[in-house]
Amino acid sequence: MGQTENKTPFLDGALTPVLERLEEQRLFIKRKYFNPLTALFIIGGIFLVMFLTKQEAKWLLAPMILFFLGGLVTVALAQKPLSEYKNAYKNEIIKGLIDRIHPGLSYNPALCIPESRFMASGLFLRTPDRYRGEDMVSGMVGKTQLNFSEIRAQYKTETTDSKGNRHTQWHDIFRGIFIIADFNKPFKTRTLVLPDTAEKIFGSLFGNTLQKWNKGRGDLIKLENVDFEKEFVVYGQDQVESRYILTPDLMERILNFRHKTGKPVHISFLDNSMFVALTQTKDLFEPSMGHSLLDTAPLESYYEILKLVIGIVEDFNLNTRIWGKE
Amino acid sequence: MPALLLIGILVFFFVIIPIIIYNGLIHKRNMVDNAFASIDAMLKKRYDLIPNLVNTVKTYMTHEKETLTKITELRTKALANRDPDTQAKVDQEMTGLMRSIMVAVENYPQLKANENFMQLQASLNNIEEQIAAARRAYNAAVTTYNTAIQIFPNSVIAGMKHFTPRELFVIPAEERQNVDVGKLFNS
Question: Structural domains in chain B?
Answer without folding.
Answer: 41-186 (1.20.1440.20)
